[in-house]
């Protein structure tokens, strides 16, 4: 599984979200890679799941990748729920 964490510039909240997603993936024992990027790059990057905030989620929905919004990028529980919801939808 490939996960993309997205924010406006690709090096602020997306990096924090990536670190949180990495912790969740390790804890769950999933085989996945996680990258952080900016909103401009996200739409053209082929991934399974995009994690981002509500504003960018609405802009990215409708593409080839599943999109899940995360309010608190440091919340392992919220990121885990987003990943679990994605896995259950497959």
Automatic annotation (TrEMBL):
Record flagged with keyword Amino-acid biosynthesis: no
InterPro entries: PTS_EIIB-like_sf, PTS_EIIB_2, PTS_EIIB_2/3
UniProt name for this protein: PTS system, ascorbate-specific IIB component
Keyword Transport attributed: no
Gene Ontology molecular function, alphabetical: protein-N(PI)-phosphohistidine-sugar phosphotransferase activity
Domain of life: Bacteria
Residues covered by the PTS EIIB type-2 domain: 1-90
Gene3D superfamilies cross-referenced by the UniProt entry: 3.40.50.2300
An annotated GO BP: phosphoenolpyruvate-dependent sugar phosphotransferase system
Keywords: Transferase
């Amino acid at each position: 599984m490939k996960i993309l964490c997205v924010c406006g510039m690709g090096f602020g909240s997306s990096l924090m979200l990536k670190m949180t997603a990495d912790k969740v993936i390790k804890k769950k024992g999933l085989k996945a890679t996680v990258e952080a990027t900016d909103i401009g790059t996200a739409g053209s990057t082929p991934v399974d799941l995009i994690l981002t905030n509500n504003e960018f989620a609405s802009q990215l929905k409708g593409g080839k990748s599943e999109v899940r919004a995360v309010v608190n990028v440091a919340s392992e529980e919220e990121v885990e729920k987003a990943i679990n919801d994605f896995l259950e939808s497959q």
